[in-house]
Structure formats: structure tokens, C-alpha cells
Amino acid sequence: MNHILKIKKLNENAVVPAQATAGSAGMDLSACLDNDVIIAPGEIKLIPTGLAAAPDTDQCALLIYPRSGLASKHGISLANCVGIVDSDYRGEIKIPLINNSHESFTVTNGMRIAQMIMTPVIIPRIETADSLDETQRSSGGFGSTGQ
User: Residues 13, 3, 123, CA angle at the centre, nearest 5°?
Assistant: First the structure.
């Protein structure tokens, strides 16, 4: 089943996201700015997209990921690693960018700054338990599998 993601432009300069190619998993999100934003080394800035979204199901979330080109070439990533936009959120989608490099970075209007993927979400019924099933790994933590 194909789902529908309604996008509302909150600013006439906002760029509606779209797949770059038929095989692209994510859709690029672009900055919607009146003026350039300079992000100093180690600094975090919240960048508006000028967009709000409404998925056609409450069994999904919009996941916001960094763009690999910005991260690998300029050290620009998301401050929260992966952003989550809940299915019932209708406010503007804003992107918290962090500059992990040693040089200032300028974000300009229309610049592709993140990517968004609509994904299904499984909401479990929570049950408390006195014990859990045993597994081969059991309670072994980091590195317990020998890797």
C-alpha cells in the first residue's frame, strides 16, 4: 500500500521534499532562511525548513537523518543524531545542526541539510514480568559476543 504524506508550506520559500532518484530511501529537507546562518565549530543551530507534515496513518514516524555529504565533507550533522517527528505533530519541522569541524560553516536558503524517511512504528503493549526468557547472549553487554 502506498501511503500519503501531506506537506504544508509554512513559508513560500520552503522546498517540498522529494526523492532524488527512484531508489532513494530518503527525501532531502532544505533550509528555509531569510538570512544565512553561520554555525561556529562546536555550535548547534536550529534551522527551519518552512514545512509541516501530516502522514495518512498514526502507525508511522518521520525519521530525520544527517546528509552524508555534509557530514563527511564539512563535519555538519544532527545534534540529536536521528530526529523523530511523531505522526501527530503539525508544527514546523526544524533541524538541529551541529558543527563538528574546526571551521565555521554557512547554511544558506535552499541548502539541503537533512534527509527524511517515513517509517512504520510498532507500538507494543507493555507488560511487567518477574523473569525474561533466557537467550544465548543472556545479559552479556558490550563486546560480549566477541566482536
Answer: 105
